[in-house]
Design a protein that fits this description.
349 residues, alpha/beta, Rossmann fold, 3-stranded parallel sheet, 10 helices, 33% helix
């Protein structure tokens, strides 16, 4: 059964369960919503970049691009944002196999293809009537009885409310604490938490005053980063790749932490608490025009042997098994740096 055939049979079952369905398909071979001879087709052929067709029952917006489908500049996050989320309960996506979103795999032994689930933590279940060749595997739902699949999806939608132990909640809470404690502004810094082979990170330009769990962007460790992710996402990903035991990375712009980075050497906390918890804090010096290319490897190398580091003139990167560990180290660094700044000012009198 082809994926589209399966979806054609599944959608009525989901509708019976009261779900409002949207559908997004990645077309590998191009498509046309219009045909030669129609006014809208001729205007588009003359050079219009976007054409909207409207009738009493439907409307459609066709946006032209010169890119190949696999290189389309509109990533999945952008395409999803085109939908009216207020009128949908569930968006079914066909294609976009490498995207870091929850997935259900359809496996048929007759195709001779290797299943995807062993290498993708985002696969929640496998739909198949054949024995799965690799253990362990996610739950198996019968391809010949799609009612079971519809029930499974319906439960996922019902349970999609954020659970109290969702690590995204903890991440947001600790970021807001940093803001409230004066360490970073509401528009500064970024953070992430890891879950298996993916991580959740704050979006680019996010304001901590209004951040909610669904705002966090899912990124895979072994696939292109989501376009909405923080510009520091390559740094977070490289840290997770080099040190799998790390569960969270936190970047902050503490003013005293940045101030001590101008001394031209690694930072040695002058206080007992900072010295015990942090030890020597590496200070990395990067040219501004090389920051994006060099920062991921440099920060990951530093955090492979230290719990926190500073990029001179920019800010601190802390890591830990959980976000609370990275938060604690960030606050300790800012306190130690503040003590150092006050001590230097006192000794200069």
């Amino acid at each position: 059964m082809r994926p589209t055939t399966l979806l054609r049979k599944l959608v009525p079952l989901l509708r019976q369960r009261g779900l409002r369905i949207g559908y997004l398909k990645h077309a590998h071979h191009g498509f046309a919503l219009d045909r030669p001879g129609k006014d809208s087709y001729e205007v588009a052929a003359a050079g219009a970049r976007q054409v909207m067709l409207v009738s009493g029952e439907h409307w459609a917006l066709l946006s032209r691009t010169n890119e190949r489908a696999e290189d389309h500049p509109a990533g999945l996050d952008t395409l999803r944002a085109r939908f009216d989320a207020s009128s949908l309960d569930l968006l079914l996506i066909e294609g976009f196999r490498s995207a870091a979103v929850p997935k259900i795999e359809v496996f048929r032994a007759a195709t001779g293809k290797t299943p995807l689930y062993p290498d993708d933590d985002g696969i929640l279940a496998v739909v198949s009537d054949d024995p799965l060749p690799i253990e362990p595997h996610p739950p198996v739902l019968p391809l010949s009885h799609l009612e079971t699949l519809a029930d499974f999806i319906g439960k996922l939608v019902r349970d999609s409310a954020v659970a109290p132990d969702d690590p995204r909640l903890a991440l947001i809470q600790h970021l807001q604490r940093l803001r409230d404690e004066g360490d970073i502004g509401s528009l500064a810094g970024n953070a992430s938490v890891r879950q298996g082979k993916r991580f959740w990170i704050t979006p680019s330009g996010a304001s901590l005053d209004a951040l909610v769990p669904d705002d966090l962007v899912a990124c895979a460790l072994d696939a292109p980063l989501a376009e909405a992710a923080s510009l520091d996402a390559p740094i977070h990903r490289e840290v997770y790749r080099q040190k799998p035991e790390i569960g969270s990375v936190l970047h902050s712009h503490g003013p005293h932490s940045v101030a001590v980075s101008f001394a031209g050497r690694d930072f040695e906390p002058p206080d007992v608490g900072g010295a015990r918890l942090l030890g020597t804090v590496p200070v990395l010096r990067l040219d501004l025009d090389q920051h994006r290319d060099q920062a991921p490897a440099r920060v990951a190398d530093a955090l492979a042997s230290h719990s926190i580091c500073i990029i001179a003139g920019h800010g601190a990167y802390a890591c830990g098994a959980e976000i609370r560990d990275a938060h604690h180290r960030t606050m300790m660094l800012e306190l130690s740096a503040r003590i150092a700044v006050i001590a230097r000012a006192a000794s200069a009198r």
